Amino acid sequence: MSVVPLREILADAFDKRYGVPAINIFNDLTLEAVLAAAVERRSPLIVQTSVKTVKSIGSDVLYRMWTAMTDGIDVPVTLHLDHCPERAVITECLERGWNSVLFDASRMPVAENTRQTVEVVAEARRHGADVEGEIESITGVEDDIGSDTAAAQQDLAVALDFLRTTGVDVFAPAIGNAHGSYKRAPVLDFQRVSDLVAAHPLPIALHGGSGLSDEQFRDLIGRGCAKVNISTALKETYMKSNLAFLRAAEEKDKWDPPSLFRAVRADVVELAGSLMTLFGSAGRAG
Hints:
This protein is α/β, with parallel strands linked by helices. It contains eleven helices and ten strands.
């Protein structure tokens, strides 16, 4: 148990067709709360950090928070660097001890993306780490990375060549999903996940998970989406929980920060735990 490689967590999920929440945290409270939910629900968990979070907190402090909070944890967890187009940040996090990284070179031509991803995979292997890859931008801006321009899908043959050449451990395709809050119900290309998995059995990462229906989650997980990214839902829960508590505090004219932290933590634990149950990862840690 405890801190394990990303591929170890995803191998079981992919084989048994359940999804593992990959939740973007942004401070000590959210990190501790999602880990607590994993222990409570006996679920594996992928903790994700954005480039923005790494830079705002600092990789040293962030990694020390991680090691302190996972010391003695008895469910499998792993630390992942989410969408990162900056090779220097990739190197920094791998050297600190991150277990995996998503090298986001989706804005590059596929050939250059492939060439650099091969280099990142080699670098990660030297640190015993894993790599997520993508060749298509996921629509939407998240933590200052991305674009609102709709992503164009590459042909299946192009995607398969990327997977075979780079040797990435998980793949994030564009299937009509988007980062942030959906402005309308997304039209998803479920078959593309099935086609990729049939041609090259590899765990698929579902990005833009916040806002999908329970039915969409279950369908995609059943097709091989073993890693399910959640960011916006946590941010909204965190901010709205703070807002509700502070409004009540203002009415009562009672200001107690520890009470605020407890209330927000409870809401974050509940959100993370509900996702573990929905995705089928609850109880998988024994």
